[in-house]
Amino acid sequence: MPTDPDQLLLQMTASIVDGEPEDAERLAREALTLGLDPLDALNRGFVPGLDDVGRRFGTGELFLPDLVRAGAAMKLASQILEAELLRRGAVRRSAGVVVLGTVKGDIHDIGKNLVGTLLTANGFTVHDLGVDVPYETFAHKAVDVQADLVGVSALLTTTMVGQAKVIEALDKAGLRTRVKVLVGGAPVTREWAGQIGADGYSEDAGGAVVVAKQLLAGVAV
Amino acid sequence: MPTLELLAPPLLERVLGEAFQLLETPGVKVQSETARALLAEAGARVAGEVAHIPEQLARAALATVPREFRLFDADGQPRVRYGGEAVHFDPGSAAVHVLDPETGEHRTAVTADLVRLVQVAEGLPQFDAQSTALVCADVPAEIADLYRLYLVLRHSRKPIVTGAFAVPTLALMGELLAVVDGGGESGRPRAIFDVCPSPPLNWSHFAAENLIALARAGLPAEIVSMPLAGATAPATLAGAVVQHAAECLSGITLHQLARPGAAIVWGGAPAIFDMRHGTTPYGAMETALIDAAYAQVGQHLGLPTHTYLCASDSKTLDAQAGLESGITALVGALAGINMISGAGMLDYLACQSAEKLVVDAEAIAMARRLLGGIQPRGETLAVELFASLGHSGEFLGARHTRQWFRVEQHLPSGVVDRASLRAWSEGGRPDTLARARTRVAELLDAYERPPLPEPVEAELTRLTLRAAQQAGLAQLPAVN
Question: Which structural domains are found in chain B, ordered by start?
Fold first, then answer.
């Protein structure tokens, strides 16, 4: 087991770049055993790896499978380290808190997962509710985690009406003034997003990050 | 490997049988006295300029032709295999015009255009060889052939498909190659020389002497027989294939008499003749059919093969350019032709375009991927993977996916638009030409001139400058 913290940080970065979730998990635990600051482990160990993958994805050098595996590795490492942070009462600075899910009746998750991975890679804190998520659950979770943004995915013309119902549920919970809503999915268009009163829309995962950043910066999109 | 065989065995035998008949009657015109003497000495009956070549003489020559040989790069590594099932592509050769990427004009090519084209081709892995793709009008015609070889040698590491325009410059080109240790005596030839008979059944004085000189210099030769079906050859495709075979067989006979065992390729650039416009369409399917059929004849004889495909007759980088180049590249690849020249070309092989070259590279990549076929990967095809994933559907994040997707999928350059509508719109709605320009700029940015030892570079320049000065040009054009 390496005891040199710098060496450990390099290995953390590599575990994300190589997309090895088991390695990332093991290294996160080692960091805690060795008494490393969890915030340091995240920001100087794992996050640079995700940044690197995101950058190289952007330049076309890496591809979706690389991104997804890096995201999976990052998720495991950050679960462990954030649990420790929470125990210590520390808070990690985030680009924004996002609640994400595929709407009730719909079990497609590839697009939604990519959005989650890219948002995480860009410094957002993502709470992924998974698929077939009841409308109210989006609202409950948004209250629990004090979300800045709710992302609702729908891949079927029959389920995209559910995006409107999620917005209603957020309305009912009194969240609509402080929580932005981002919608996406194959049948979703800019017109539909406008029609149901969503704040933002993107056709693909890369665009979702751009729109999320704009929305939280107060830019109308 | 998927293959295309157009000629059923009985038809193939008929083609060869008639080709051998043509060698005897009407025979082949040979306009070089030296060449006629070689043929006569070996048993051909010579009457006037016509040599009547008996089948057994041609068969004897076929027996001494190497079934395969290689071309080497600047580091002496074998990069091109002529023979067997190898399929290579190189940019089309000896265009006189270049398609100006800014104005769309077909303008006379100069030094900078050839250098730019070589730089672009150098970074494209689809091209295993360079060609001396443009004839530069800023040097005297007398040295145009060796000058383009000089430029390519200075800017590329790849093997080169070239050709001489006259016997004296051929000797100089051999000297240039010897300077970079890729000459005939090195055993590691860097270049191959195209030699063109004149259809029908005619070896001009230069072409015949060229064959003899190449054989004796140990420089590989590539016969580029170009019957034009309906104009300088039978309009029937099978008839044109017979003429092609007769022209190649006669060339090989002469070549092997000059030096048995010298390397030579069964190649060509035939075309049909367009009966409305009097043009020679290289993007026509019938042209590709002639090519695939003659290549099959060459393969049947156990010879290395070459052809001209992946070119278009369009005048601009449009849908016609894409469909003609792409479809014919695929035919050539399926026919298993060792060297397919023509990429980048427009307007009946008169015009070269770096922007078209990067588009054609994607067509070539598709053709190569087709040749790769479908292979079993791993112990089971899918069962093991499902054992670990079940119904989760998490293929995108599976280690298996990451392990195989780069092998299974050709990942195209930005020339091929696979972006979402949003990304494409935000990128300025680039069309093919715009994407090709971007790709060309990327390749030019990434290009680094291969380092040549200073004495080698100086000697190349000295030999070329000396030839230029003899042709009345005081100084070589500046190369940026």
Answer: 63-372 (3.20.20.480)
